[in-house]
Design brief:
Elements (H helix, E strand, L loop, with lengths): L3 H5 L5 E6 L1 E14 L6 E14 H10 L3 E9 L2 H12 L7 E4 L5 E8 L2 E8 L7 H15 L5 E5 L8 H13 L4 E4 L11 E4 L3 H8 L9 H14 L2 E7 L5 E4 L4 E4 L12 H14 L4 H16 L9 H11 L1
Parallel strand pairs: 1-4, 1-8, 2-6, 4-5, 8-9, 9-10, 10-11
Antiparallel strand pairs: 2-3, 6-7, 11-12, 12-13
Helix pairs in contact: 2-8, 4-5, 8-9
């Protein structure tokens, strides 16, 4: 029960999530036999499901954790975009920050799953940069949303073209002017454009790719820590939170650093774990949690998601119960 007071501080926090929103589509069934036409499994279809994905999944996690998420993105003016808006509406997440553009198509990731195992993924997407008109309209939407007493901003980048050097830096500059903490979950394309963040959350692969360094984490932790120092020098920010998959997480600021080991779990699907980690870390930050607690609670949240197939979010009660049991 030690952490219950901290979790209560999650409730009602207004968090603006900015980034690549997408539709996660699932084809669920059972493998019955191998096709006589080619050496591939035949799936007996049982169910089709559509879920909010990408930056939208971060907003969904925030919602389920008691916060009040706002979402800002550019999606296609197409059937998939309309379906996404409907899914947001059903979950009572405002869509006023979604810009629907006829110059893009909505990103859709279709996963074929049998017996909790992903067999195939099909991506339909348009990753070119925003047009000048879309860029201006997108930034105007963000400025409007920031006028509504936002407690924090999460930048969630999936390298789908919505975010770029210009708008990332404008968002961070504006947030710093308004004294709003801003956290980010990066990808390779814009990795070096996040100077000025409150919390930066790359995973181990993104850290290596972003800095163009190579090392074996298990055998060369000193090289990993040198990489984090390089990250903090090249892209100045307050808190570094690096997710390490089965090795847990590493967190540091200018005064302290800590490894948090992963709890043993039956891993089913790692999809969406990063979305959950950045959502929980941001809420912990707003709740004035210690560096150690930010890392421990985020680590548990990410692990919980990996036990379930597909991209899923966690709930307030489930996280609270798990944290109180494990910590």
């Amino acid at each position: 029960m030690k952490y219950n007071q901290l979790f209560e501080k999650f409730k009602g926090k207004r968090v603006l999530v900015i980034g690549d929103v997408m539709l996660d589509s699932y084809i669920l069934g059972t493998v019955t036999r191998i096709s006589p036409e080619a050496p591939v499994p035949i799936i007996s279809l049982e169910k089709k499901d559509n879920r909010i994905g990408g930056a939208g999944n971060v907003a969904l996690n925030l919602k389920h954790l008691g916060a009040f998420p706002l979402i800002a993105s550019v999606i296609g003016n197409d059937a998939e975009g309309q379906l996404l808006k409907t899914l947001f509406d059903k979950r009572e997440i405002s869509t006023q920050g979604l810009l629907m553009s006829s110059e893009r198509k909505t990103t859709v990731k279709t996963r074929v799953i049998s017996s909790k195992q992903q067999l195939l993924r099909i991506d339909s997407e348009d990753t070119h940069p925003l047009t000048e008109n879309n860029e201006s309209a997108f930034l105007a939407i963000i400025e409007q949303l920031l006028s509504k007493d936002v407690d924090a901003i999460i930048i969630e980048d999936y390298d789908k073209g919505v975010l770029n050097q210009q708008n990332i830096q404008q968002i961070i500059t504006l947030s710093n002017q308004l004294n709003i903490p801003v956290t980010a979950d990066p990808k390779k394309e814009n990795f070096h454009h996040y100077s000025g963040l409150t919390l930066f959350k790359p995973n181990l692969k993104e850290l290596k790719e972003g800095l163009n360094i190579k090392f074996n984490f298990e055998q060369e932790k000193e090289n990993f820590e040198l990489g984090v120092k390089q990250l903090r020098n090249k892209i100045p920010h307050s808190i570094s939170l690096v997710t390490l998959s089965e090795h847990g997480v590493f967190i540091c600021d200018e005064n302290e650093s800590k490894y948090i080991l992963a709890h043993k779990r039956e891993i089913t699907d790692v999809s969406g774990a990063g979305d959950t980690v950045i959502a929980v870390a941001t809420l912990c930050l707003l709740a004035k949690a210690s560096l150690n607690d930010i890392a421990m609670i985020s680590n548990i949240a990410g692990g919980m998601v990996c036990e379930k197939p597909g991209v899923v979010s966690i709930t307030f009660d489930a996280l609270k119960n798990e944290v109180n049991e494990l910590l």
